[in-house]
Amino acid sequence: MSCKLVRRHLGALVDGELDPATQIEFERHLEGCPGCQEHFAFEASLRQQTRDSMGGVHAPEHLWGRAIRRLDEIDEAKAEHTSLIHVRPMRWRQTWPIAAAAAAVLIIGGVVGLPESTEYQGAGMLQDVMNLHSQALPSDVQAEAPQEVVRYFQGKTPFPVKPAQFEEPSMKFVGARYIRVGARPAAALYYNHLGRRVTLLVFQSPEIMRNAQRTHVGGRELFYHDVGGNVVTIRQHGGVNYAFYGDIDRPVLFQLAANARVAY
Amino acid sequence: MPRKSKKVAAERELFEVEARPQLDALYSMALRLTRSPVDAEDLVQDTLVRAYRFYDRFEAGTNFKAWLLRIQMNTFVNRYRRASRERQVFDGPMAVPVGEGVMSRASMRGLTDPVGDAQRRLIAREINRAFEELSDDARAMVLLADVEELSYKEIADIVGCPIGTVMSRLHRARKQLQGSLQNHAVQLGIIEEGDDEVEDPIPLEAFRSRKALKS
Predict the structure, then answer these.
(1) Which residue from A8, A12, A71 is facing B201, i.e. has the nearest CB?
(2) B100/A86 Cα distance (integer angstroms)
């Protein structure tokens, strides 16, 4: 066994990562070779010095508490999601008007001669949009810094995504993820409003404006859809749609959606 | 506040009991990777959140610290988007070739047995400085192996490469560290400059197959 070979793999020897047979051969060589012994002593000593000089870093006191608070939020979201699923009758009530709306759209489409697929997609899309909220998918990016959210969506969506800014301090940004609505790339931004989940879906879908109802809140024009007792509020800026919805009452949602800064 | 289900509460408690002792290791690693206390805190928090979300995927009986560090490494790579670039530098044609005997014998002797606390502190400072000059990938290797004392198998899982690659990357990282340390130490007069021995690398596999031929 050559010194070169031994020295090349001294690191693995010090780490105890050589197979037993090779280790024995290495040790046998070391016994009779002062040069390699020196290398070995150096390798082991430097390992210890590296450990001593770089270890012993302590996390700041507040870090654990900070992380724990985030976990609390996740648990709350989980608990809400669970309670949402328990209310089965709600599901039935939700599906009827959607089915009826789809049927109505189909009939109108048939009479007026609009392309059926587009209209049907519109109704299906609303259901997809609703599902995105009730599924409570995990966030891919959780950072508080808006820049990180912007960076995350770069190259994923064909339009820039920024977390909406709300006047209400009770609206807390929780996280975001890339998602598809039908075949369209979209950004799902998750917020928490006093323990209730609010989703903001950012995507390009001119169809979603069709048949939308119109209202004014605080001087701002707002569009919305009623989806079986739930309301999806929509704003449009520069060809991008911002759909706000969640487990909160309609007046509160309207207020939040109307006052949000989405394109800044 | 919505009620917590018993299952969620029990899982949460278990997670906290397991994760709390690893906080220092996570933060230490995060600090070395991001080089910023603010980013390090964000990274650790994101890591814990992610780990908690995927806690059901953790295989009981395996190393929890290694699992957390893997999540942190992935989070770092995804979030900071540096790794792909660093890895190219590390593995690609731009990789700095490292000879086998970067350090001279005289240097080696000077660093093996530091005399007194003062010199030990000085060398510790120089090790930290030399470490900062390494690429992200090399720093991760040294941290996982030398500071966190994980096995090559665990490191391979964390970094996502074969064990043989861990061995060679780690070797290269340590040689870089030693080379950089030597330069600093010589400048500071901790050690004397000597002639470098340059050797050709010999793969262990070649030795094993030669041995197999003989026997």
Answers:
(1) A8
(2) 65
